Amino acid sequence: MSDAPAPVPDPILSAALAADLDAADFRSEPLRRLWGEEADDALARGMREPILRAIADDEGPLATLGRLLVLGMRQPAPAVAAALPTLGVGGLESLGLGRRDGETVVASALVRPQSFVDADGIGEWWIASDLDEVALDGVLPADHVLGVGGASRTLAEIIMPIEVDRALDLGTGCGIQALLVARHAGSVVATDISTRALAYAELNAQLNGVTTIEFRCGSMFDPVAGETFDLIVSNPPFVITPRVEGVPEYEYRDGGLVGDALVEQFVRTAPSFLNPGGAAQLLGNWESRGGQPALSGRAGLDRLASWVADDLDLWVVQREELSPLGYAELWIRDGGTTPRDAAFTPLLTAWLDDFEARGVSAVGFGYILVRRPAADAADMPPMRRLERLSQPVSNVGGALRAGMAAHDLLGHGLPEALVTASDVTEARHLLPGNDDPSIIELRQGGGFARTIAVDPALAAFVGACDGELTVMQIVAAIADLFEVPLVELWADLEPRIRQLVLDGLLLPRG
Ligand SMILES: C[S@@+](CC[C@H](N)C(=O)[O-])C[C@H]1O[C@@H](n2cnc3c(N)ncnc32)[C@H](O)[C@@H]1O
Prior knowledge:
Low-confidence stretches: none
Shape: globular
Strand content: 15-25%
Largest sheet: 8 strands, mixed
Number of domains: 3
Distance between the termini: 57 Å
Number of strands: 18
Helix content: 25-40%
Bound molecules: S-adenosylmethionine
CATH architecture of the largest domain: 3-Layer(aba) Sandwich
CATH topology of the largest domain: Rossmann fold
CATH superfamily of the largest domain: Vaccinia Virus protein VP39
Radius of gyration: 26 Å
Mean pLDDT: 93
CATH class of the largest domain: Alpha Beta
């Protein structure tokens, strides 16, 4: 367990800290300018020395707060007092973020600026969390409260930017997702099994002046029994961990169940907490089992799909797949144990034995979106998209929202007229000396950045979609041009046109 105290949220002291941080310009860009881009990037890779060298002679408020709160390092008490004139060292102690030790102040937690971009533009929060591996210089305690990491950022990017009345952030940790959805929700419930995490989350809401989040302690959906939401988001403790003695239960990343049972439980349970039309979005891992060859692709996705009732919409995007060895190594290292440590080999053995016991050949990672159909869409065919997409993506939340809207639109039939999305380009590949392309591809610039191979007829159709002519007028013209029966061409093109609408390459005319 952690030796560090839990923070003690207090709205007045948090406001005082926020005022001091604001006055010191304690934000991402000013800090990056202070110690330089290279040092800033090095910190993300676990090295704090470049920052320390860059600001070695600087005892000003920003440098002092940078060392104390970004790096978690002991600072002279007079310098901290000067950097926190409103809060004071006593106030920092009362919030549980630092402690006086003689003439110095010892950091008990990190507070870092965290910038974000959403539909409303660029913003920034201050996020307090436990001291990290670099500050602790060792293995993380099992009740560690994470700051904003790669998975947090991934979930933040995939959350659909939709206005909702009620949202739930399950497993809120430091509260980053709750803060994000609070920008578009009337009210948010943030839950966690860890009281330490909830203390951080509440303090972070106070620090950032957000008052619409309610914090509740408990496991999974227990704290919201009988309630329903329009949006549920979760970066749940999905990490698959062997249940044997000697392997710590990392509360911050591991829900204590066997294999991917926690993700299964979440996906099976979440729909009963959704209002009609409401969606649950989460990150997860899913195992491919039953002796399929390693990295077999779809087996894990099919298992996952079997957890979701047929009348619900389901969209899963598998971003990567790891072998059992790759997976074990990733998460053992993530806990701060490296192959140089004596504990590494026993942990690796435990992980590999655990996977072998269930016949796991690969573990998929990605995002899951489950939606309860809206009341007026109950008789429409539900969405069932299981995809493997590994290319770089952008604005995924927007792309998921658009994809769901396109699915709903197609439930009423193809729109009368379509326009080609502005981020679509066409690439033609020709054999040397040949005028006819052997490959034509449509490329999407944003969202899921899909590349779709098309034939000349579909390329001609997309090229003509400027919203002036109707879909049927364009298809009739192409049938004339290619001298093929209209009925046959339509039967061939129609499902592929629908897919381009679903994928966001073709949009309904304004
Ligand atoms: C991976 S962290 C995610 C934190 C934060 N939401 C983010 O995106 O950065 C998972 C969180 O789930 C919490 N947790 C673990 N087991 C839980 C359970 N059974 N029910 C609810 N929360 C749980 C952990 O305490 C931790 O804060």
